[in-house]
Amino acid sequence: MEENKTANDIQQTERTVNPYSAQAVKRALGRKRFGELLILFVFMLFFYGPLIHAFMLAFANVYAQGDVIPSEWGFHWWGYVLGQQNVPKAILNSFLFAFCSTGLSLLICIPAAYVLARFKFKGRKLIMFSFLIGNAFPKIGMYTAIGIIYYKIGLMGTFLGVLLIHMLGTTMEMIWLPAGAFRSVPKHQEEAARDAGAGPVRTFFSVTLPIAWPGIVVAAMHAFIGSLGESVGTLLVGLPQWRTMMTEMYGVILDFPATAGAVFAVIIVIPNMFLLWIMRKYVSADTMAKGFKMG
Amino acid sequence: MKTTKKSNWKTTLFIIGALTPAMLVSLGLVVYPMINQVIRSFKDPKSGAFTFDNYVYLFTNKLSSNAIWYTVVVSILTVILSIAIAYLLAMFLRFSNSKISKTIGNLYLIPRFIPSLVAVYAMKTIIADSGLLNRISLLFPENSPLYNYKPGMLYNMKGILFMNCWFNIPFATMIIVAALAGISESVVESAQDVGAGKLLIFFKIILPLSYKDVLIAATFVFMSNISSFTTPYLIGANFPQMLGVYLRKQFGNGKYEIAAATSVVIFVLCSISAIVYLYTNMKEQAWEEN
Questions:
Q1: pLDDT, tens digit, for every residue of B131-145?
Q2: Which of A123, A141, B114, B192 has the smallest number of Cβ neighbours within 10 A?
Q3: CATH superfamily for domain B54-282
Q4: 3-state helix, strand, coil in chain A (%, to 5)
Q5: What tens digit of pLDDT does each residue of A58-69 get?
Q6: What is the DSSP letter of A74?
Q7: Alpha carbon distance A113, A220 (integer Å)
Q8: Of chain B residues 89-148, which have a CB less than 8 A from chain A?
Q9: Are A108 and B25 inside 8 Å of each other by CB?
Q10: A275 and A187, same structural domain?
């Protein structure tokens, strides 16, 4: 349908008129408007329909076979889910891993990102590529590979073992995104600060960091959300000692009634949406896409 | 390591110091396990002797050989579907200034922040044979063809592809939107001024300026789908299985050598697309430089 819209554009827009001008838009309003509304409708139905539906189910006390709208609303399943003995601990664990892995990867990755963005040396691209492998290559393959080593060195089911798995998922974005951000800091601004007598550390914290901030914030948010959402790796190396919300979710999906799963899904999504809302001004296609390109 | 600028030992030390922790993580969590996995895949489970048996088993066993083909087919179809739709969506977002396009522009990235498990679960409540679609269809009169419509999407390829589109279209759109944003309006306008039609502008200006990023998006989509686990685990069939599900099963059964060989196969499949990625990323820059 997008194609039709483009075709309409060709016919309805005269070449001499700027197609982005208000007049042109107005002229094409009828059919174009309809086409755009259709796009919006399909988009919302496909991407948000399932989420909204799950949200609705979370507040359904009774959702019998054949009901479109639940016949009784309430918080019955919330009590049920939160009353499960593993659940509060799992929620706590999820945040514990998310905070630790985000903090640790910031500490490790930011210096590396800065160096990779600012210095030119032999093997730079090779190093950047090595981080790509960890992220882009099959997670499940990496997890099993690490799992086998964990068995040998006794990291299976330990806090450190699970923490490292969580970091694996975010290392690339934690390096590539901030590296992209550091690269976009104009060099002459840093040089000007240096000329004015600021030391390298002060230049970094008062010139470079403030400009590169959005990229770093987005990376940290990715790391945090990624860690909260990590399921497969924890499932493989953490269970049964370390359970997170995500590993519990597998069981909930498979064993519990749909409404209990919905409650769990909402609990899991709340922190993500909260973070996203706080950081909304930093989240743009431009900042995030930088994390997937080599500079 | 040497800097191209004025090189002194302090800078070198700084570079090494800043890179070492990250490199250690990468070596310990990526490189070493991978090498270990490759070696293990050539070992006999009992004697530890060198053998090709694990690979022979993978490619001759019905379940695993089917899994390999099925995974490749699903991944390629996912790439084609999601890139095509994402390109159209990105064009709409870039070249339309309407309120609707801005609304979608604000909303399309949010699914990227929904944990995959939650998304699969939510989709399942819609497309399951007793899900929302079916429940809505029960509202139709009993003799209408729509009555008691069963989507039939769970536990087969359709469901996996549907879900993969949900996951990959926002990502691919994000990469392509960023690329299209780099095409300045004045270039498009000046082409229009000299009389170029929309199709001509697309093929002569927009596509050449964005195909690299399209390839980057395709690479990442392909790689993440080759190894996808959550989606096929929860809405895929038992046969044919996707490689991620098969791998988990072998690992769970303690068949580490078969699991190793399976992940090497996944690595190799990913390498093919990684080469495409590297080639497009570095055509203009030699490995040594920069």
A1: 888 888 888 888 888
A2: A123
A3: MetI-like (1.10.3720.10)
A4: 75, 0, 20
A5: 898 888 777 788
A6: S
A7: 13
A8: 89, 91-92, 95-98, 100-101, 103-104, 107-126, 130, 132, 135-136, 138-139
A9: yes
A10: yes
